[in-house]
User: Fold Acetylornithine aminotransferase from Glaciecola punicea ACAM 611.
Amino acid sequence: MQVTRDTFNDVMVPNYNPADMVPVRGEGSRVWDQHDNEFIDFAGGIAVNVLGHCHPALTQALISQGNKLWHLSNVFTNEPALRLAKKLTDATFADKVYFANSGAEANEAALKLARRFALEMHGTQRSEIIAFKQGFHGRTFFTVTVGGQPAYSDGFGPKPGDILHCEFGNLDMLASMMSDKTCAIMMEPLQGEGGIIVPDPAFVKGVRELCDKHHALLIFDEVQSGMGRTGKLFEYMNLGVRPDILTTAKSLGGGFPIGAMLTTAAIAEHLKPGTHGSTYGGNPLACAVAEAVFDVVNTPQVLDGVAHKEALFREHLNRINAKYHVFEEIRGKGMLLGCALNEQYKGRAKDFMVAATNEGLMCLVAGMNVVRFAPSLVIPDKDIIEGLEKFERGIAGLVAQPVALTK
Assistant:
C-alpha cells in the first residue's frame, strides 16, 4: 500500500500537523524520507532517540528478546524488567521501580503515589499538589492539569482539584503557598516544553528544604532531562538535591515506549497490590531495549562526552548569532539546548524550525520563542557541525525574507 503525507489528512485524527516529508529510515543521526532526501536529526524524537536511530546494541536487544518472550500480564514478572529495575536502583537514590509505557503514565503513577502516601501518613486534609507555571508533565487529565500551561488543559471540563501553580524560580512565592495541606511539589529540574529553562541550583535546594519543612514529597519529572541528557544519568545528580520520587521515560527506551517511576522503599509501600497498574508496564520487549540503552548510556565514555558536544553546539551557535543576531540567549544543558529568539523574532520559533527542515535539519520548538535541540548523546561531531551549517542556511534565508513562513 502506498501512503503519503496526504494519507495522514484522510485517516488520522487532526491533533497533530506533521511535516510534509515522511521519514522512512534512519541510521545514527541521519534520517531519509520517502524520496531519499537526507536529514540530520537534532530533534531525537523529542529527546527520545538518545543513541540515535537503529543503534546496533538496541536493535540486537530487540531481536534477541523478540525471539524469546513478548508479553506477560502482571500476574507474572519477567527477567528484563527485573534486571532493568536492579540497574536503575543501583545507580540512583531509589529502592523501588514502577514501570509504565510513557512519561505521562510514570507521572500519573507518581502523583497517585504521593496522594496515597499523604492520605495514609497525614490524613485527608493533605492533598494539595504544587507545580510550576510553564511546566509540562504529560497529557493525561491529571498530569496536564498539574502541568502549568492552561492552553493544554482548558476545554475538557472540570479539572482535578487541589492543584496550585507557582512561578518557576520564585522561592518566596512557593514558601507562601506551602502549608500543612501540601502533599507534594512536582517540578522539572530543567523545564523542557516551557522553554528550556535551567533553574538556579539554590532555588532547587530551597524547594527541597521547604518540602522537608512541611513534610511534603518532592517529585522530579526527569522524563526529558534524564538518562544522560545533561551529562549525568539524571539531572538531580548535577544539582545535589535528592527527590523522593523521580520519573523518567523518553530516552529510557531509546525509541521503544517505556516509562518508569523511581522511589524509596518507605514511600513505595503505599502502592499496595491493586492500588495501581498497567497492562503493558514492564513489558519484556520494552525492558530489554531499555536495559541495552542503560548499559550504553551509563558509561564514562558517553556521559563525559556530553559536555564536549554541548561546547561544540554553543561555539557554532554563538558564531551564527554573531552574524545574524537572532537569539537572545542559548539556554539549556548538555544535549538539551534552546535558542531563545530575541525581540525582533519573538513568536517565530516554528518559522526557524520549518526553515531548518527545508535545509535538511530536523529540530524542535519549545513554545513560540525557543528553537530546541535534543539530539543523540553520541551524535558525531561532524554531524553537529554539518547540521548547524544547515541551520545557518535556514536562518540566512529567513533573515533575508522576514515574512513568516508559517503564515
